[in-house]
Amino acid sequence: MMGSAGVVQRAGAIIYIIWLREIKTFIRERARIVGMIAQPLLYLLVMGKGLASAMSLDAAPGGLDYVKFMYPGIIGMSILFTSIFSAVSIIWDREFGFLKEVLVAPVPRWGVAVGKSWGGATVALFQSAILISLAPLLGIRLTPGLVVRLLPLAFLISFAITSMGVAIAARMESMQGFQMVMNFLVMPLFFLSGAMFPVSSAPAWMKNLMVINPLSYGIDGLRNVIFSETMITLEGGLERPLAEVAVKAGLIRWDLGTDILIMVLVALVLTVVGAYSLNRVE
Question: Which of 45, 112, 241, 247 has the fewest CB atoms within 10 Å, counting from its CB?
Answer without folding.
Answer: 45
